[in-house]
Design goal:
Helices cover 40% and strands 23% of the residues. It has helices at residues 3-39, 79-88, 109-115, 166-183, 192-208, 226-235, 275-279, 305-320, 334-353, 361-366, and strands at residues 96-108, 121-122, 125-133, 139-140, 147-156, 158-159, 162-163, 212-219, 224-225, 239-240, 246-255, 262-272, 286-287, 289-295, 322-325. It has 2 domains: 96-156 and 161-209; 210-366, Cell Division Protein Zipa, Chain: A (2-Layer Sandwich), CATH 3.30.1400. It has a 6-stranded antiparallel β-sheet with strand order 10-11-12-14-8-15, with helices on both faces. Strands 1, 2, 3, 4 and 5 form a 5-stranded antiparallel β-sheet that branches. It has a two-stranded antiparallel sheet with strand order 6-7.
Length: 368
């Protein structure tokens, strides 16, 4: 290691030490204030909280660099589906590091909502908040009109952007301490070293069990007009999304909820093509290639996503007179696709064994 690398390493160590020291100082300050309150000052009465003024990796499958970007799955679903997916995003100890706030008396939900951090992120990692309802003891997203005995704040430990790092975790800790300050409750935080180790292990697992697959449909003689491609895609079940150059095959699946089974809509396969052609004024603008995309961890295995992808590739390819090719233009044989299918069964089994079955909310968050 040269002098420059040694200097940079030393600076990095000093930065992390400073952040950890600041977090420790915050914890000490909060404990000291609470100790003073216990000696004489009246402690905060949570029931009296008054509303304040609102302030405003893919494991390579069939794709190469041309298709390595994660599909924008959420852009193809309705607003109702957006809300349903948001409601399904719940804290999960399999992928989240969790801090707890215990209240001596029930706290109104609106009071908690107004005191949450403005930015629900720590670096690139999302934050989630849930509370235990004082009436029935269930954990739920915060709601106005309800009262809660305990609050949990969580930071996601890994995603396709990588593992949670020390700076991101320190930002989470800082936000938890700031929230504890306004609530008058010290947060119970997990150990940083343990969290970062879990994050690295989870990231390693995700990197080894990720797959985004593609099948390209290549025009053989004459390129298709944009309107003709769209017409044939619609006949195969694809619908328009909010992103130019993408259509989606969306299917519903009944999934168990807290009571009766609930139907959730999933983007099973996407069809990607030249966005400039779709935005062009001439509806006959030629398109010579379209790509079917499958983001494996995002789609429940029960929907048979790879089989559906192959079926649609055959159906749409026949309608367009197209060849099925890989990203290098080489023909895709049924034997090669069968081998991919065998590998996918192993991937599904690994996700299931980890408790992160494909298409579940936790898996969708981890592989995003």
């Amino acid at each position: 290691m040269g002098p420059l690398q040694e200097a940079l390493a030393a600076v990095g160590v000093l930065i992390i030490a400073a952040v950890l020291g600041f977090n420790g100082w915050q914890s000490w300050q909060l404990r000291r204030r609470r100790a003073r309150a216990g000696d004489g000052d009246a402690p905060p009465q949570h029931d009296a909280f008054a509303p304040t003024t609102p302030q405003e990796r893919r494991e390579p499958g069939l794709m190469d660099e041309a298709g390595s970007e994660a599909p924008e799955l959420a852009s193809t679903v309705s607003q109702d589906a957006h809300r349903a997916r948001a409601a399904a995003m719940r804290i999960d100890p399999l992928i989240d590091a969790i801090a707890s706030f215990m209240f001596e008396q029930p706290v109104p939900g609106e009071s908690l909502l107004e005191r949450l951090p403005r930015s629900a992120r720590a670096g690139t990692k999302p934050l989630l908040f849930e509370a235990r309802n004082a009436q029935d003891g269930t954990w739920e997203p915060l709601r106005s009109g309800q009262r809660y005995m305990e609050l949990q704040a969580a930071v996601q430990m890994a995603s396709r952007s990588g593992a949670l790092n020390a700076i991101e975790y320190s930002e989470f800790v800082t936000k938890c301490h700031a929230l504890g300050e306004v609530l008058g409750v010290a947060p119970d935080l997990p150990d940083m070293a343990e969290v970062l180790e879990q994050a690295r292990e989870l990231d390693s697992f995700a990197a080894g069990n990720d797959a985004q697959l593609s099948i390209n449909l290549q025009a053989q003689a004459v390129a298709w007009g944009m309107d003709y491609l769209r017409q044939q895609a619609h006949a195969c079940g694809f619908t328009a999304g909010q992103t130019a150059g993408r259509l989606a095959l969306v299917e519903s699946l009944d999934e168990p909820g807290q009571g009766e089974a609930q139907s959730r809509r999933h983007t099973v396969v996407q069809l990607q093509f030249d966005a400039h052609a779709e935005l062009a004024e001439d509806p006959a603008t030629p398109v010579a290639r379209a790509t079917l995309l499958l983001d494996v961890p995002q789609v429940p295995q029960a929907l048979r996503p790879f089989a559906r992808m192959r079926e649609v590739a055959q159906q749409l390819g026949d309608a367009l007179g197209a060849r099925q090719v890989d990203d290098n233009g080489a023909p895709l044989s049924a034997t090669a696709l069968d081998q991919i299918d065998v590998q996918l069964q192993q991937l599904y089994a690994a996700l299931e064994a980890r408790g992160l079955a494909a298409g579940t909310p936790a898996a969708q968050r981890l592989f995003a």
